[in-house]
Amino acid sequence: MNFEAIKTIGIIGAGTMGQGIAQICAQAGYKTILFDINTQVLKKAEATTIKNLDKGIERGKLTEAEKQTALANLTYTGDTLQLSCDVIIEAVVERLEVKQSIFKDLDAVNTPDTIFASNTSSIPITRIAAGIPHPERVVGMHFFNPAHIMKLVEVISGAATSPEVAETIKQLALKLDKKPVMAKDAPGFIVNRVARHFYVEGLKLLEEGVADAKGIDRLMQASGFKMGPFELMDLIGVDTNYSVTSSMFEAFHYDPKFRPSRIQQQKVDAGYHGRKSGKGFYDYQ
Ligand code: NAI
User: Are residues 175 and 214 in the same domain?
Assistant: First the structure.
Protein backbone atom coordinates (compact mmCIF):
# COMPACT_ATOMS: atom_id res chain seq x y z
CA MET A 1 0.00 0.00 0.00
CA ASN A 2 1.38 3.31 -1.08
CA PHE A 3 1.14 6.17 1.45
CA GLU A 4 -1.04 8.41 -0.79
CA ALA A 5 -3.58 5.59 -1.15
CA ILE A 6 -4.35 5.54 2.57
CA LYS A 7 -7.87 6.83 3.21
CA THR A 8 -9.20 4.70 6.07
CA ILE A 9 -7.57 3.63 9.33
CA GLY A 10 -8.95 1.12 11.82
CA ILE A 11 -7.74 1.24 15.43
CA ILE A 12 -8.32 -1.87 17.54
CA GLY A 13 -8.41 -1.17 21.28
CA ALA A 14 -9.81 2.14 22.57
CA GLY A 15 -7.88 2.29 25.85
CA THR A 16 -5.08 4.63 26.92
CA MET A 17 -3.28 4.46 23.57
CA GLY A 18 -6.00 3.57 21.05
CA GLN A 19 -8.08 6.65 21.91
CA GLY A 20 -5.19 9.07 21.29
CA ILE A 21 -4.06 7.32 18.11
CA ALA A 22 -7.61 7.41 16.71
CA GLN A 23 -7.91 11.10 17.60
CA ILE A 24 -4.79 12.13 15.68
CA CYS A 25 -5.70 9.97 12.66
CA ALA A 26 -9.12 11.66 12.51
CA GLN A 27 -7.51 15.10 12.93
CA ALA A 28 -5.15 14.33 10.04
CA GLY A 29 -8.18 13.77 7.78
CA TYR A 30 -8.44 9.97 7.74
CA LYS A 31 -11.75 8.16 8.04
CA THR A 32 -11.03 6.45 11.33
CA ILE A 33 -12.88 3.58 12.99
CA LEU A 34 -12.14 2.85 16.64
CA PHE A 35 -13.03 -0.66 17.82
CA ASP A 36 -13.10 -2.15 21.31
CA ILE A 37 -14.80 -5.20 22.82
CA ASN A 38 -15.71 -3.07 25.84
CA THR A 39 -18.46 -0.51 25.14
CA GLN A 40 -17.71 1.40 28.37
CA VAL A 41 -14.16 1.97 27.12
CA LEU A 42 -15.55 3.25 23.80
CA LYS A 43 -17.76 5.77 25.62
CA LYS A 44 -14.82 6.94 27.71
CA ALA A 45 -12.68 7.25 24.55
CA GLU A 46 -15.32 9.44 22.91
CA ALA A 47 -15.50 11.73 25.97
CA THR A 48 -11.69 11.95 26.18
CA THR A 49 -11.43 12.83 22.48
CA ILE A 50 -13.91 15.70 22.86
CA LYS A 51 -12.10 16.91 26.00
CA ASN A 52 -8.70 16.81 24.25
CA LEU A 53 -10.01 18.68 21.19
CA ASP A 54 -11.62 21.33 23.42
CA LYS A 55 -8.31 21.77 25.22
CA GLY A 56 -6.65 22.21 21.82
CA ILE A 57 -9.12 25.01 21.01
CA GLU A 58 -8.51 26.69 24.39
CA ARG A 59 -4.77 26.65 23.67
CA GLY A 60 -5.27 28.11 20.19
CA LYS A 61 -3.94 24.99 18.45
CA LEU A 62 -7.24 24.04 16.83
CA THR A 63 -10.35 25.77 15.48
CA GLU A 64 -13.95 24.77 16.20
CA ALA A 65 -14.31 23.79 12.51
CA GLU A 66 -11.25 21.50 12.76
CA LYS A 67 -12.71 19.90 15.86
CA GLN A 68 -15.98 19.20 14.04
CA THR A 69 -14.14 17.73 11.04
CA ALA A 70 -12.11 15.45 13.32
CA LEU A 71 -15.26 14.31 15.12
CA ALA A 72 -17.00 13.64 11.80
CA ASN A 73 -14.03 11.51 10.67
CA LEU A 74 -14.17 9.31 13.75
CA THR A 75 -16.61 6.47 14.34
CA TYR A 76 -16.73 4.06 17.27
CA THR A 77 -17.75 0.42 17.09
CA GLY A 78 -18.02 -2.51 19.43
CA ASP A 79 -19.75 -4.85 16.98
CA THR A 80 -18.03 -7.85 15.45
CA LEU A 81 -14.45 -7.29 14.39
CA GLN A 82 -14.96 -6.93 10.63
CA LEU A 83 -13.29 -3.64 9.81
CA SER A 84 -12.02 -3.24 6.30
CA CYS A 85 -9.42 -0.44 6.18
CA ASP A 86 -6.22 0.55 4.39
CA VAL A 87 -4.25 0.50 7.65
CA ILE A 88 -5.12 -1.34 10.85
CA ILE A 89 -3.32 -0.23 14.04
CA GLU A 90 -3.81 -2.55 16.98
CA ALA A 91 -3.50 -1.16 20.52
CA VAL A 92 -4.99 -3.98 22.59
CA VAL A 93 -3.57 -5.65 25.70
CA GLU A 94 0.11 -6.59 25.54
CA ARG A 95 -0.45 -10.29 24.81
CA LEU A 96 0.97 -12.04 21.77
CA GLU A 97 -1.94 -14.42 21.18
CA VAL A 98 -4.55 -11.60 21.34
CA LYS A 99 -2.65 -9.46 18.82
CA GLN A 100 -2.09 -12.42 16.48
CA SER A 101 -5.71 -13.51 16.59
CA ILE A 102 -6.92 -9.97 15.76
CA PHE A 103 -4.58 -9.69 12.77
CA LYS A 104 -5.54 -13.18 11.56
CA ASP A 105 -9.27 -12.42 11.78
CA LEU A 106 -8.82 -9.09 10.04
CA ASP A 107 -6.64 -10.54 7.30
CA ALA A 108 -9.63 -12.57 6.15
CA VAL A 109 -11.86 -9.49 5.64
CA ASN A 110 -9.30 -6.99 4.32
CA THR A 111 -7.72 -6.27 0.95
CA PRO A 112 -4.39 -7.79 -0.18
CA ASP A 113 -2.84 -4.36 0.44
CA THR A 114 -3.97 -3.65 4.02
CA ILE A 115 -1.11 -2.90 6.41
CA PHE A 116 -1.25 -4.41 9.91
CA ALA A 117 0.58 -2.16 12.36
CA SER A 118 1.09 -3.02 16.02
CA ASN A 119 1.52 -0.48 18.80
CA THR A 120 3.12 -3.16 20.99
CA SER A 121 5.68 -1.84 23.49
CA SER A 122 7.75 -4.95 23.74
CA ILE A 123 6.65 -7.96 21.71
CA PRO A 124 8.98 -8.53 18.73
CA ILE A 125 7.16 -7.78 15.45
CA THR A 126 8.67 -10.95 13.95
CA ARG A 127 6.83 -13.01 16.59
CA ILE A 128 3.48 -11.26 16.00
CA ALA A 129 3.88 -11.64 12.22
CA ALA A 130 4.85 -15.32 12.43
CA GLY A 131 1.27 -16.50 12.77
CA ILE A 132 -0.22 -14.13 10.19
CA PRO A 133 -0.93 -15.08 6.56
CA HIS A 134 0.96 -12.03 5.20
CA PRO A 135 3.90 -11.27 7.51
CA GLU A 136 5.36 -8.84 4.98
CA ARG A 137 2.48 -6.45 5.75
CA VAL A 138 2.97 -6.57 9.54
CA VAL A 139 4.97 -3.69 11.04
CA GLY A 140 5.51 -1.97 14.40
CA MET A 141 4.14 1.54 14.85
CA HIS A 142 4.97 2.36 18.46
CA PHE A 143 3.47 5.60 19.74
CA PHE A 144 4.24 7.13 23.14
CA ASN A 145 1.84 8.21 25.85
CA PRO A 146 -0.09 10.53 25.55
CA ALA A 147 -0.33 9.64 21.85
CA HIS A 148 -1.91 12.95 20.82
CA ILE A 149 0.99 14.91 22.32
CA MET A 150 4.20 12.86 22.20
CA LYS A 151 6.03 13.27 18.89
CA LEU A 152 8.16 10.14 18.84
CA VAL A 153 7.04 7.03 16.93
CA GLU A 154 9.26 3.96 16.59
CA VAL A 155 8.68 2.23 13.23
CA ILE A 156 9.81 -1.37 13.57
CA SER A 157 10.49 -3.84 10.78
CA GLY A 158 10.23 -7.51 11.63
CA ALA A 159 12.27 -10.11 9.76
CA ALA A 160 9.56 -10.39 7.08
CA THR A 161 8.31 -6.77 6.92
CA SER A 162 8.63 -5.37 3.42
CA PRO A 163 10.69 -2.16 3.18
CA GLU A 164 7.78 -0.48 1.30
CA VAL A 165 5.42 -1.17 4.19
CA ALA A 166 7.88 0.32 6.71
CA GLU A 167 8.33 3.37 4.46
CA THR A 168 4.54 3.84 4.12
CA ILE A 169 4.18 3.76 7.92
CA LYS A 170 7.01 6.27 8.28
CA GLN A 171 5.21 8.59 5.84
CA LEU A 172 1.95 8.09 7.73
CA ALA A 173 3.66 9.01 11.01
CA LEU A 174 4.96 12.23 9.39
CA LYS A 175 1.45 13.04 8.15
CA LEU A 176 0.23 12.59 11.76
CA ASP A 177 2.78 15.26 12.70
CA LYS A 178 5.04 12.75 14.46
CA LYS A 179 8.78 12.17 14.37
CA PRO A 180 9.31 8.60 13.18
CA VAL A 181 12.50 6.70 13.99
CA MET A 182 13.22 3.43 12.19
CA ALA A 183 14.08 0.72 14.71
CA LYS A 184 15.21 -2.87 14.38
CA ASP A 185 13.17 -5.65 15.90
CA ALA A 186 14.23 -6.58 19.44
CA PRO A 187 12.22 -7.06 22.64
CA GLY A 188 11.28 -3.56 23.84
CA PHE A 189 12.83 -2.03 20.69
CA ILE A 190 14.91 1.00 21.75
CA VAL A 191 13.08 3.24 24.21
CA ASN A 192 11.42 0.55 26.32
CA ARG A 193 14.64 -1.49 26.46
CA VAL A 194 16.51 1.42 28.01
CA ALA A 195 13.58 2.70 30.07
CA ARG A 196 12.76 -0.71 31.58
CA HIS A 197 15.45 -0.23 34.23
CA PHE A 198 13.92 3.09 35.26
CA TYR A 199 10.83 1.18 36.44
CA VAL A 200 12.48 -2.06 37.55
CA GLU A 201 15.13 -0.32 39.68
CA GLY A 202 12.56 2.12 41.13
CA LEU A 203 10.43 -0.85 42.18
CA LYS A 204 13.47 -2.60 43.69
CA LEU A 205 14.22 0.47 45.81
CA LEU A 206 10.61 0.45 47.00
CA GLU A 207 10.73 -3.29 47.78
CA GLU A 208 13.99 -2.88 49.70
CA GLY A 209 12.45 -0.04 51.69
CA VAL A 210 15.18 2.39 50.65
CA ALA A 211 12.59 5.11 49.95
CA ASP A 212 8.88 5.39 49.31
CA ALA A 213 7.26 5.93 45.88
CA LYS A 214 6.73 9.65 46.38
CA GLY A 215 10.28 10.15 47.62
CA ILE A 216 11.77 8.31 44.64
CA ASP A 217 9.56 10.28 42.20
CA ARG A 218 10.53 13.62 43.77
CA LEU A 219 14.20 12.77 43.59
CA MET A 220 14.09 11.68 39.96
CA GLN A 221 12.23 14.87 39.08
CA ALA A 222 14.79 16.95 40.95
CA SER A 223 17.51 15.24 38.92
CA GLY A 224 15.89 16.35 35.66
CA PHE A 225 13.39 13.65 34.70
CA LYS A 226 9.94 14.98 33.82
CA MET A 227 8.29 12.28 35.93
CA GLY A 228 9.49 9.69 38.42
CA PRO A 229 8.93 5.96 37.76
CA PHE A 230 5.79 5.61 39.88
CA GLU A 231 3.89 8.59 38.45
CA LEU A 232 4.89 7.37 35.02
CA MET A 233 3.66 3.83 35.68
CA ASP A 234 0.34 5.30 36.84
CA LEU A 235 0.12 7.29 33.60
CA ILE A 236 1.09 4.35 31.37
CA GLY A 237 -1.16 1.90 33.24
CA VAL A 238 0.37 -0.25 36.00
CA ASP A 239 -1.09 -3.36 34.30
CA THR A 240 0.30 -2.45 30.88
CA ASN A 241 3.71 -1.62 32.34
CA TYR A 242 3.71 -4.95 34.22
CA SER A 243 2.80 -6.86 31.03
CA VAL A 244 5.63 -5.13 29.17
CA THR A 245 8.19 -6.04 31.86
CA SER A 246 6.89 -9.65 31.96
CA SER A 247 7.10 -9.93 28.18
CA MET A 248 10.68 -8.59 28.16
CA PHE A 249 11.70 -10.87 31.06
CA GLU A 250 10.54 -13.85 29.03
CA ALA A 251 12.04 -12.59 25.77
CA PHE A 252 15.44 -12.09 27.42
CA HIS A 253 15.43 -15.70 28.67
CA TYR A 254 14.50 -14.75 32.22
CA ASP A 255 17.45 -12.44 32.72
CA PRO A 256 16.97 -11.30 36.37
CA LYS A 257 17.60 -7.68 35.44
CA PHE A 258 14.12 -7.64 33.83
CA ARG A 259 12.35 -9.57 36.64
CA PRO A 260 8.86 -8.11 37.29
CA SER A 261 8.21 -6.79 40.78
CA ARG A 262 5.86 -8.48 43.24
CA ILE A 263 4.65 -5.09 44.51
CA GLN A 264 3.62 -4.22 40.97
CA GLN A 265 1.97 -7.60 40.47
CA GLN A 266 -0.07 -7.05 43.64
CA LYS A 267 -1.27 -3.66 42.33
CA VAL A 268 -2.36 -5.33 39.10
CA ASP A 269 -4.17 -8.13 40.97
CA ALA A 270 -5.97 -5.55 43.13
CA GLY A 271 -7.13 -3.60 40.06
CA TYR A 272 -4.96 -0.60 40.99
CA HIS A 273 -4.07 0.13 37.36
CA GLY A 274 -3.14 3.79 37.78
CA ARG A 275 -4.91 6.89 36.55
CA LYS A 276 -7.30 4.96 34.31
CA SER A 277 -8.73 3.05 37.31
CA GLY A 278 -8.55 5.95 39.79
CA LYS A 279 -5.81 4.34 41.88
CA GLY A 280 -2.31 3.00 41.35
CA PHE A 281 0.78 3.99 43.28
CA TYR A 282 -1.16 7.23 43.95
CA ASP A 283 -4.84 7.87 44.59
CA TYR A 284 -6.73 9.89 41.93
CA GLN A 285 -10.27 9.67 43.32
P1 NAI B 1 -5.38 -0.36 27.83
O2 NAI B 1 -5.52 -1.45 28.85
O3 NAI B 1 -5.59 1.04 28.25
O4 NAI B 1 -6.35 -0.65 26.60
C5 NAI B 1 -6.41 -1.89 25.94
C6 NAI B 1 -7.78 -2.02 25.33
O7 NAI B 1 -7.80 -3.20 24.51
C8 NAI B 1 -8.89 -2.19 26.37
O9 NAI B 1 -9.81 -1.14 26.20
C10 NAI B 1 -9.51 -3.54 26.04
O11 NAI B 1 -10.91 -3.55 26.19
C12 NAI B 1 -9.12 -3.71 24.58
N13 NAI B 1 -9.10 -5.09 24.14
C14 NAI B 1 -8.62 -6.16 24.77
N15 NAI B 1 -8.77 -7.26 24.02
C16 NAI B 1 -9.36 -6.87 22.86
C17 NAI B 1 -9.80 -7.53 21.68
N18 NAI B 1 -9.64 -8.83 21.53
N19 NAI B 1 -10.37 -6.79 20.70
C20 NAI B 1 -10.53 -5.45 20.85
N21 NAI B 1 -10.16 -4.77 21.95
C22 NAI B 1 -9.58 -5.48 22.94
O23 NAI B 1 -3.95 -0.59 27.19
P24 NAI B 1 -2.95 0.50 26.56
O25 NAI B 1 -2.13 1.05 27.63
O26 NAI B 1 -3.69 1.39 25.65
O27 NAI B 1 -1.98 -0.46 25.73
C28 NAI B 1 -2.37 -1.00 24.48
C29 NAI B 1 -1.12 -1.41 23.71
O30 NAI B 1 -0.30 -0.25 23.51
C31 NAI B 1 -0.25 -2.43 24.42
O32 NAI B 1 0.33 -3.28 23.46
C33 NAI B 1 0.83 -1.57 25.06
O34 NAI B 1 2.02 -2.27 25.30
C35 NAI B 1 1.00 -0.48 24.03
N36 NAI B 1 1.53 0.79 24.50
C37 NAI B 1 1.10 1.33 25.69
C38 NAI B 1 1.61 2.54 26.13
C39 NAI B 1 1.15 3.16 27.40
O40 NAI B 1 1.80 4.10 27.88
N41 NAI B 1 0.05 2.73 28.00
C42 NAI B 1 2.62 3.28 25.33
C43 NAI B 1 2.91 2.67 24.06
C44 NAI B 1 2.42 1.46 23.70
Answer: no
CATH number of 234's domain: 1.10.1040.50
Nearest alpha carbon, ligand 1 atom 18: 98
State the DSSP code for 137: G
Q: Looking at the structure, do residues 142 and 168 belong to the same domain, yes or no?
A: yes
> Between helices 64-73 and 16-27, what is the axis angle to 10°?
110
Nearest CA residue ID for atom 4, ligand 1:
15
Domain range for residue 227?
192-277
Q: What is the DSSP string of 59-79?
A: TTSS-HHHHHHHHHHEEEE-S
pLDDT reported for residue 1: 83
Considering only CA atoms, which residue is closest to atom 8 of ligand 1?
15
- How much distance in Å is there from the Cα of 60 to the middle of ligand 1? 30
Query: What pLDDT does 261 receive?
Result: 97
CB-CB contact of 240 with 16 (8 Å):
yes
Beta carbons within 8 Å of 147's beta carbon, 6+ residues apart? 17, 19, 20, 21, 23, 24
Ligand 1 touching residue 118 (CB < 6 A): no
Using the mean position of ligand 1's atoms as its centre, give its distance from the Cα of residue 1 in Å. Answer: 25
In a domain, 24, yes or no: yes
Between CA 45 and CA 57 the distance in angstroms is 18
Summarised one tens digit per residue, pLDDT across range 37-75 is 999 999 999 999 999 999 999 999 999 999 999 999 999
Same structural domain, 53 and 147: yes
Among 133, 168, 184, identify where a domain stops. 184
Q: What confidence tens digit (pLDDT) does each residue in 106-141 have?
A: 999 998 999 999 999 999 999 999 989 899 999 999
Asked if residue 273 lies in contact with residue 16, where contact means CB atoms within 8 angstroms, the answer is no
- Going from the Cα of 120 to the center of ligand 1, the distance in angstroms, rounded, reads 9
Q: Pick from 184, 213, 236: which residue ends a domain?
A: 184
